[in-house]
């Protein structure tokens, strides 16, 4: 049985050292989390799997690690300064603040019906309702109060302010003087660092279209209402690709990347039944997008976005390039008066310059971790009537690949053998191998079931040639226990390396 609620996953993450609330000893920092000893391993394994697939295994991809601090003009010409905002509303009674669209999604049907009528919007079109409310904020605030919109914190109708937009970018200043000239931002997405480095990468690698640039890194958004654990947070990590193609080939490559990303998430262990492709209707598309398909996942708190694959046309390179008028840009972009580089591609056959279209698969690392935990969490009833919790993670993603356990802790010949074996297995480079000497063998098995360790190797008296029957025929053999089946087999240590390699390789 999977996790019945998000609370079960939160409790497991805290108890076993996957994820902690940031600055918890001072009351916590809302929307910010720290990855503990096991969480950082799982997160790194997911990122490494993504990098391996999209950079190492492909011949049309380059990597990049751009800076977090971002020049103001980058985010001016990208449109973020003007448009990167969410609708916000306050309840005068509770002093609580909410993102408007999220608040409305949580309302009872009869409340929403009253709002639709008050704002003269067709019932069922929440996106249109929010747009109408933001166009007439004074009217909207009164309509919300009159309709009895409930405050999730109190469960009571609120007295609502006119909704307003809130820019989510974190500002900072570069250098000792805090003035407009030194203003910069913490990047709200990793994509812009790729776009402004397009010419640098192209010149350094001599790539031909189509090709992509991949990046994994932190981004920051001052979310109005962070929620659902690590799903919506203020500091998060993204895995993004900007894949540059010829205009006219963009629709093919958009479909290609949707299928590729669906396939990859299934290879990571997510079931196809829990992955739902959602094609955004025209009214929901971002201003730069020709088409967007979201890969939704059935999280414990509901069906939500795991990754988005957008056809961004020539908007991004067209926004940042110089010589805009000479390049035939199709997207509506701001007139760029500051760029010093032509971010375009010269056709090797015709010699003509043009701005490539961009397909962007963008996934949240933290959301990926949450999806993996939700999918893997299993509660099983054993034949003995006992219950166990096991994380059935894909073995290659497990935080700990192998636990080496001495059967007893007071026999130096057993513990030293176990430590030598641990070092030998670690040298295989398969991931983290843990020497486990806390508690008895049964408790060790249960603990490693709960954190997803696929294999537990036990060193016992047989291993050191002291079998009960007085023979040494089992010398240098160990017991290997499988996490999912709980079955145990006996292997010689020289066979163990091949056994593990076969099961932990990608």
Determine the mean pLDDT.
Answer: 95
Q: Which fold name is given in CATH as the topology of the largest domain? A: BirA Bifunctional Protein, domain 2
Look at the helices and sheets and give the structural class: alpha+beta
Number of strands: 24
Shape: globular
> Which strand order does the major sheet show?
3-10-11-17-14-13-12
Query: What is the second-level CATH architecture of the largest domain?
Result: 2-Layer Sandwich
Number of helices: 16
How many domains? The number is: 3
Given as residue ranges, the uncertain stretches (5+ residues, pLDDT < 50) are none
Q: State Rg.
A: 27 Å
What is the CATH class name of the largest domain? Alpha Beta
For the sheet with most strands, the description reads:
7 strands, mixed
**Per DSSP, what share of the residues sits in E-state strands of 2 or more residues?**
15-25%
CATH H-level superfamily title of the largest domain: Bira Bifunctional Protein, Domain 2
Q: What share of residues is helical?
A: 25-40%
- In whole angstroms, the N-to-C terminal distance is 27 Å
GO molecular function: ATP binding; glycine-tRNA ligase activity
Enzyme class: ligase
Subcellular location: Cytoplasm
Catalytic activity: tRNA(Gly) + glycine + ATP = glycyl-tRNA(Gly) + AMP + diphosphate
């Amino acid at each position: 049985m999977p996790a019945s609620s998000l609370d079960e996953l939160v409790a497991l993450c805290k108890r076993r050292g996957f994820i902690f609330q940031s600055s918890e000893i001072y009351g916590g920092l809302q929307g910010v989390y720290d990855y503990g000893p096991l969480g950082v391993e799982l997160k790194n394994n997911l990122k490494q799997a993504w990098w391996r697939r999209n950079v190492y295994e492909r011949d049309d991809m380059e990597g990049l690690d751009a800076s977090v601090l971002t020049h103001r003009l980058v985010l001016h010409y990208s449109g973020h300064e003007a448009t990167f905002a969410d609708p916000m509303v306050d309840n005068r009674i509770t002093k609580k603040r909410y993102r408007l669209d999220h608040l409305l999604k949580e309302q009872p049907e009869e409340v929403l019906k009253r709002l639709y009528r008050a704002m003269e919007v067709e019932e069922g079109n929440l996106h249109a309702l929010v747009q109408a409310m933001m166009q007439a904020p004074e009217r909207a605030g009164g309509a919300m109060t009159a309709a009895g919109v409930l405050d999730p914190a109190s469960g009571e109708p609120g007295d609502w302010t006119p909704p307003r937009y809130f820019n989510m970018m974190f500002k900072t200043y570069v250098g000792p003087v805090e003035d407009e000239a030194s203003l910069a931002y913490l990047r709200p997405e990793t994509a812009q660092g790729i776009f402004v480095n397009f010419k640098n990468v192209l010149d350094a690698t001599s790539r031909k279209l189509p090709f992509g640039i991949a990046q994994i890194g932190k981004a920051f958004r001052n979310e109005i209402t962070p929620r659902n654990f690590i799903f919506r947070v203020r500091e998060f990590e993204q895995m993004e690709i900007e894949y540059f193609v010829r205009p006219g080939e963009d629709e093919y490559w958009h479909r290609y990347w949707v299928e590729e990303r669906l396939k990859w998430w299934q290879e990571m262990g997510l079931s196809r039944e829990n992955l739902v492709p959602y094609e955004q209707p025209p009214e929901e598309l971002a201003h730069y997008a020709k088409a967007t398909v979201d890969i939704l996942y059935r999280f414990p708190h509901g069906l939500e976005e795991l990754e988005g694959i957008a056809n961004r046309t020539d908007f991004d390179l067209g926004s940042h390039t110089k010589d805009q008028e000479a390049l035939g840009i199709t997207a509506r972009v701001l007139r760029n008066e500051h760029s010093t580089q032509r971010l375009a591609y010269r056709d090797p056959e015709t010699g003509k310059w043009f701005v490539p279209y961009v397909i962007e698969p963008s996934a949240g690392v933290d959301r990926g971790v949450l999806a993996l935990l939700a999918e893997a969490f299993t509660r099983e009833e054993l034949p003995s009537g006992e219950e166990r919790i096991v994380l059935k993670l894909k073995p290659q993603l497990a935080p700990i690949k192998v636990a080496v356990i001495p059967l007893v802790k007071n026999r130096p010949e057993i513990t030293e053998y176990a430590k030598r074996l641990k070092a030998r297995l670690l040298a295989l480079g398969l991931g983290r191998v843990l020497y486990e000497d806390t508690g008895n063998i049964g408790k060790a098995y249960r603990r490693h079931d709960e954190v997803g360790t696929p294999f537990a190797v036990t060193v016992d008296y047989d291993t050191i040639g002291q079998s009960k029957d007085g023979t040494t025929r089992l010398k240098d053999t160990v017991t290997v226990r499988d996490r999912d089946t709980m079955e145990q087999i006996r292997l010689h240590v020289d066979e163990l390396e091949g056994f593990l390699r076969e099961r932990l390789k990608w």
